[in-house]
Amino acid sequence: MSEVMLAIMELAERLGVSKINELPGCWEHRVDEHWWIALNGHREETLCENGTSVPPFHAYVEFNGWPAGLVGLNGGTIAAGTVANEDSLLAALRDAARALEPEDL
Q1: Model-level pTM?
Q2: Contact 48, 41 (CB under 8 A)
């Protein structure tokens, strides 16, 4: 499983999100001021709120409102700029999860 998907799942768990496959669409979350994700837990392509079609069991990622990647359980593609890249996305996801200490839930 990709590190990014693991980090997304950790964040969702810390937020108390479950049964994403039962949502009417994707689970969508603003990670920080730069990163936004839409996770499709369905067996079919699903539209996220901005109209982007997300493949089954994938996360669509935006950086500053621009498409930045598509990640699945076995890997994916993230923009490889100096600021928008896999490392900065992982750091943002981990920071967001760490900010949600278990006693805060």
Answers
A1: 0.91
A2: no
Token pair belonging to 31: 């990670």
Tokens of 27: 């689970």
pLDDT tens, the chain, 105 aa long: 699 999 999 999 999 999 999 999 999 999 999 999 999 999 999 999 999 999 999 999 999 999 999 999 999 999 878 999 999 999 999 999 999 976 544
Question: What is the rounded distance in angstroms from the CA atom of residue 41 to the CA atom of residue 38?
Answer: 10
Sorted by where each begins, the domain ranges of the chain are 3-104
* CA dist list (Å): 29 to 45, 75, 82, 85: 18, 20, 23, 18
